[in-house]
Amino acid sequence: MQQFLINEFGKNLGNKIYSIQQKELQTILAFAIGKSSNQLKTLEKTILPRIVLYKALQKELEDQKKAYDTVEKYMFIIVGRKINKQYLAFESIPGFFYIFRKIMIGTISRSDNWITEVIKNDSVSVEYNITKCLWYDACKENNCLELCKIFCDTDHVIYDSMKKIEFIRKGTLGTGHKCCDFCFLNKKKC
Question: What Pfam families does the database record attribute to this sequence (predicted)?
Fold first, then answer.
């Protein structure tokens, strides 16, 4: 994140924003009460650093749109593309869709970061709805619900360019829908 900020704003301002972000992160973590140890880990490593970055950018730049656009760029280019490259590399493994399904279902069923309903899980598709989400809740609790859309849209950066899977989504909690729907189709079976 620090290097991204330096690239975006130059060394002085980039380091200043990063310093503010790091200091505020420690403060906001102290207010993350009533969460499980797994949720606290996700908040500390994934969600809150980006929320605090957004708030630090708003404060320093005095421009909410610029702050939003910067976090969006960070999430899409740095976070989303990195995960996408990992999945693209794994697509060459024989039986990739089977492994992908197991990872997805295992992740959502073992984590209390979501409340999830599995709709379908077979060789053709894996589909599930998330009706409660830690990312959404954290954005709401920190008065930046608009930021959740970036987190949701990052899924498209991660999955849309995959060759063996088609990712379909109709809506997310972060865009005002009643759930985040995930549908991954096995392109070999469609």
Answer: ATC_hydrolase
What residue spans define the domains of the chain? Answer: 2-186
E-state strands within the chain: 114-121, 125-133, 165-168, 180-186
pTM over 0.90: yes
Encoded amino acid at 25, one letter: L
Domain 2-186 listed as CATH 1.10.1760: no
DSSP 16-55: HHHHHHHHHHHHHHTT--S--HHHHHHIIIIIHHHHHHHH
**CA nearest to 38, candidates 144, 96, 110, 99:** 110
Amino acid at 181: D
Q: Give the number of other CB atoms < 10 A from CB of residue 59.
A: 12
